[in-house]
Amino acid sequence: MSTLTRAPVLKPFTLALIQLGNIGANKAANLTHAREMIQKAVTNHGSNKKPDLVVLPECFNSPYGVTHFPEYAERIGYTPGKPYSPDNSESESVKMLSAAAKENQTWLIGGSIPERDPQDDKLYNTCTVYNPQGDLVAMHRKVHLFDIDIPGKITFKESETLTGGTTLNSFDTEFARIGLGICYDIRFPELAMIAARRGCQVLVYPGAFNLTTGPLHWELLQRGRGTVLAEASEKEEIVYADIDPKTLEETRSGIPVTTQRRFDVYGDVSKM
Ligand SMILES: NC(=O)CC(=O)C(=O)O
């Protein structure tokens, strides 16, 4: 993770999660639609507060399939801590996301896109994050690739064209430290445990779960970490949630597993 300074104090904030309908073959149309949905999330929030953070889903600019990744991949070329200008980026998706964050004055987790590393040409499933000024402030490459083979049901091997990321990533806002993962990453508790021990109060996993292995666990995986406050239907939809720090404080003091771990018995995965 890039940020190992003291985490910001968790403050109340409003989250908007965008679920998109079918992603088509036309990348420009996918980008235009995603931008419209970001604007909609920020302006049509009904009785909720204007969202502080908007999140797009996994693979929002490309059909989700190993044969599509090489064709849709974009060079981002972002290195944490080095100067980076989204306006001059080679990536049309980065340019759009940066502009959308800026014009809507919101933090934006830009789901994920297929990315081509400019140095070694490898492909990744990559999430980029923007502050309300449109700066790209963090990036996460899906660490756990979705490779699965259940005979007669589903065979899918992201690793046929993608490489797994090798870093754990988070970023600080004025209301929270937020850890990042992408879809299948949520099934690996180590990533979440490490993020929590490094001060993240919030974890965000843009996802595009498949309908064979997904439904049994997507809600359960969320519930394992807290109450489910809002849930989308299977259609295109924006869901909102007001996050209250009191819930986190009360839960952590009521069930004090955070301070009762026995690292003398089983070691601390975040220090390995
Ligand atoms: N799409 C994924 O990365 C994961 C998934 O569909 C699942 O875990 O189920």
Automatic annotation (TrEMBL):
Residues covered by the CN hydrolase domain: 13-272
Record flagged with keyword DNA repair: no
Cellular component annotations (GO), alphabetically ordered: mitochondrion
InterPro entries per the UniProt record, alphabetical: C-N_Hydrolase, C-N_Hydrolase_sf, Nit1/2_C-N_Hydrolase, UPF0012_CS
MF terms in GO: omega-amidase activity
PROSITE patterns listed in its UniProt record: CN_HYDROLASE, UPF0012
One BP term from GO: glutamine metabolic process
Domain of life where this protein originates: Eukaryota
Record keywords, A-Z: Hydrolase
PANTHER family, per database record: NITRILASE-RELATED, OMEGA-AMIDASE NIT2
Protein name: CN hydrolase domain-containing protein
